Structure formats: structure tokens, C-alpha cells
Amino acid sequence: MATKTSLSAVFLFSFIAILFAIPIQAQVPTNQTFKFINQGELGGGIVEYHATYRVIQTNSHTFYTHPFGLCFYNTTPDSYILAIRAGVPKDEVRWVWDANRNHPVREKATLSLGREGNLVLGEADGTVVWQTNTANKGVTGIKLLGNGNLVLHDKNGRFIWQSFDYPTDTLLLGQSVTTNGRNKLVSRKSDTDGSDGPYSIVLDHTGFTMYLNDTGQRLIYGGWTGTDYGSTVTFDFDIMDGFDDGIAYELVLNVNQDINAPPPPPPQSHRHLLQVRPIGNAHQINLNKLNYNATYTFLRLGSDGNLKAYTYYDKVRNMKWEESFAFFSSYFIRECALPSKCGSYGYCSRGMCVGCPSPKGLLGWSKGCAAPKLGQCKSGAKASYYKVADVEHFLSPYLDGGDGPMKVGECRAKCDKDCKCLGFFYREDTSKCVLAPLLGTLIKDVNTSVGYIKYSK
Ligand SMILES: *[C@@H]1O[C@H](CO)[C@@H](O)[C@H](O)[C@H]1NC(C)=O
Ligand SMILES: *[C@@H]1O[C@H](CO)[C@@H](O)[C@H](O)[C@H]1NC(C)=O
Ligand SMILES: *[C@@H]1O[C@H](CO)[C@@H](O)[C@H](O)[C@H]1NC(C)=O
Ligand SMILES: *[C@@H]1O[C@H](CO)[C@@H](O)[C@H](O)[C@H]1NC(C)=O
Q: Any idea which ligand is nearest the CA of 29?
């Protein structure tokens, strides 16, 4: 009796399973499916990163909604990134979203959307390189929207997948980072290498923070730290009254727009907020005010680590991308605080690289200026240091001036002991100590802090 019951249960179970295995979801209509092969003519014009590109077009889709378009681009031969471009080639094209930045594809790679609704980027041999993982989820179509968002939608127009959920180094207007999904932007390595670089800006409970990670350790160098911004930060603009009866546009980061969420606490007055402009209220961070149309603007973490916005400038006949905000700039955070400002090493004063610190004193700065090469390090052995007066390290403001109070000798002993320490910065007024695992740009800071740079005599 027991056996019979379980047998029929198994039968019933299998029956239900089979029933559900049959796709009951709506599918992509046959005339909306496509397979685009990456071959043929390459486009020209003024193109960011000196890239060449192929416009993606099929019988059913243009993938172009002014001024955005879907393309393959390459900066090195036979190494293509599926991307969204902004702007037109006769003005200037910028790349605002990458699908496969760490895994470029080759000639004859394919981009396809099948009836099941999965958007797939594959190599010519069929190897899948990237996909939206949206098979059998009710996708009925694909669209590139007028805000630059590539979406896969269902029959009610609901987005099943959107490129806005996967920012790389760029936020378009209306695009967010969120702790419930992708919570960061990551820089590209360089103009020619689009893979993940060392800079990131990360949203978490400690703020919206810029990090440099090329020593295996995350070093804070900027952002809006010390404030819990909740779950979401969105790049956007507000329209305001401008000059001469015109309107002005305020570029902003909107914070946690979920109206049910409690407002974040007011920002702490860290010393690093050496910015001239007001930083906005608890729900908004003001970036910059523009007296031209900001409809097409994006915010990007560049390969140099600076966070900048660019706006398609409509005051001239040929539109092009105008820098409309820079985090490290004369009007926001002092430029010398950008670690890469003076290349790998330099002395920076009022936004200019004015010297190359050396054991013999300040020499003229050039791109070749580099931190001293160190011999073998023995932890604890007394190292040699040369002194650089009146400088602070980019980390100092974010570490509340450093550890301590302690004596300068203790700070030095800590650096002696730490083979990763390339120098230390000591504030005589507060007796605080910062160890530097990376030197970069030293910020001129009159008579408060002194740098001691490790070197081999
Ligand atoms: C696709 O087919 C449907 C009917 O099956 C038709 O209504 C629609 O216009 C077609 N779309 C295109 C782009 O041909
Ligand atoms: C820093 O970069 C290294 C090498 O790319 C990586 O292994 C490590 O996880 C990164 N650390 C953090 C905290 O992101
Ligand atoms: C700003 O530009 C957008 C896109 O070109 C346009 O639709 C809008 O009307 C412009 N706004 C103003 C106030 O000119
Ligand atoms: C720095 O030096 C100037 C004079 O050169 C002096 O007026 C100022 O008080 C000093 N600041 C500190 C923090 O010692």
C-alpha cells in the first residue's frame, strides 16, 4: 500500500515537473531575434581612446537612439568590447558602458538574441564570453533607450535586464550604484587597456569612497566618506533658476531616494572637505552648476583616479563633450590630493607639480620623477630617510591626520619595521603619524606636516 502511494506520488510529481519544464513564458517574436557577426566595415571620426568601432545593426534593430548607439570597439587589433557609445563621430564619441571589458572578443564574434530571451556575446567558435542570463524569463524584446540604457523587456514593458544595473566606470544621468547590486565604479587601466584598473569608488555603510588599490591594499584618497548614504546613489541633475532669466542645471548625486528609508545623518566635517562649494543636504550632494543644457551628461571614474562629469555641450553647432565637473579641481577638492597628479612621485603646490623630492632637496619635476629605489628590506633594521618639509600625504585627511599622538621616533620605528612602508608623514602640531605604502603626489601643506622618505644610502 505504502509503495503504491509513493509510486503515484512520484508519477504525479514527474507530471508536474514536465508541465513546468515546457516554456510557459512569452518568447521573443522570431522577427525580433538576431545574430550580429562582428565583421566588416569599421567606423571613423573623433573617437575616445583613439578606438575604431563597428556599429551594431540588424534587420530588426538599429540600436541607435540619439545620441547613444551600440557598438563593438577596439583599441588594440582583434580585441573588441561590446559597448554603448555616446555622441556622434563627427563631434566626438565617448564610451559609456562596456559589457566585457575584462574579456575582449575577436573578429567574427557574435551578439545574438534568441527566442528564449538571452542576450549572448560569443566568440566565433561558440564560446560564451558574456550573457545577460535572461533565458526563459519572459523577455519579448530589446531596446536602447534615449537615456543610454540598453534594456531587455517583457510584454508589459517591464525591464528584465538593463545595462544601467551594471555600470563599469561611468554613470549616465539617472543611473545608480546600489548596495543591493553593483555598488561601485572601477576605472579602466589606461586609454588603451580597458580592463579593471586600480581605482574604484564604492558605496557601502561607510560612505561613497574612492580607493586606490595597486599595492594589494585599499588606500582611501577621496569621495564622500564618513556618512552612511544608505542603499543607493544616483547621478542626476536639478533644474534651477539661472542668470539672465535662463535656467541652470545643478549636477547632483541623489542619495537614497527610497522615501521610506530614514535620511542619512548629516555629513561629518572631516578636514578633507576642503571644498569651496556647499556639499548639499543629507539627500543630495551638489557637484557643479552649469549654465548650459545638461541633458546628456555622464560621470566617470577615469584611469587617473579623478571623478569627472562630461556634458554634450549644445552652445556650439558641433556638439562635443565638455568637462562639467571634476572632483579634484580648483573648485572642489584641491587638485594636489589626486595621488596620480604628479605621476608616480612629485611635490605639488596649488595644483601644480613643482618639484621632485630627493635626498639633495627639491629638483625640477618631470614625468620621470620617481620614488627612491630601495634595496632589500630587513624589518626593524634602521632605514635611512630624507626629509621633505611642509608636505602631507594623500591619505592623511582620511585617517584623521594619522595614528597617535606619538613621538617622531616612534613613527619612524614603525616605518622601519614595515617593509611595505615607503616613508612616513609626521604632524608636529598634533604628533600624528601616517605610514605610506605608496608615495604618489606629496601635497604642499605649510608647516604642519613633514615627510620622511625611505631611501638606500
Ligand atoms: C514582427 O511580427 C509581428 C507579427 O508577428 C508584426 O506585428 C511586427 O510588425 C513585426 N515586426 C517587424 C519589425 O517586422
Ligand atoms: C586589491 O588588488 C588586488 C590585486 O588586483 C586584489 O587581489 C585584492 O583583492 C584587492 N583588494 C581589495 C581590498 O580590493
Ligand atoms: C535640453 O536638451 C534636450 C535634448 O537635446 C532637449 O530635449 C531640451 O529641450 C533642452 N532643454 C532646453 C531648456 O533647451
Ligand atoms: C605656519 O607658519 C606661518 C608663518 O609662516 C604661521 O603664521 C602659522 O601660524 C603657522 N601654522 C602652523 C599651523 O604652525
A: 1
Any atom of ligand 3 within 6 Å of the Cβ of 27 = no
Q: Which fold has domain 30-165?
A: Agglutinin, subunit A (2.90.10)
Q: Is the CB of 295 under 6 A from ligand 3?
A: yes
Question: What pLDDT does residue 8 have?
Answer: 62
Query: Whose CA is closest to 183, among 253, 252, 233, 130?
Result: 233
Residues contacting ligand 2 via CB (< 6 Å): 213, 216, 218
Q: Which is the closest atom of ligand 2 to the Cα of 211?
A: 14
Per residue in 153-181, pLDDT (tens digit) is 999 999 999 999 999 999 999 999 999 99
pTM of the entire predicted model:
0.89
**Exposed e or buried b for every residue in 332-364, given b needs 16+ CB within 10 A?**
bbbbbbbbbbbbebbbbbeeebbbbbeeeeeee
How high is the pLDDT of residue 262?
Answer: 56
Ligand 1 pocket by C-beta < 6 Å: which residues? 29, 31, 60
Q: Where are the domains of the chain?
A: 30-165, 170-333, 341-455
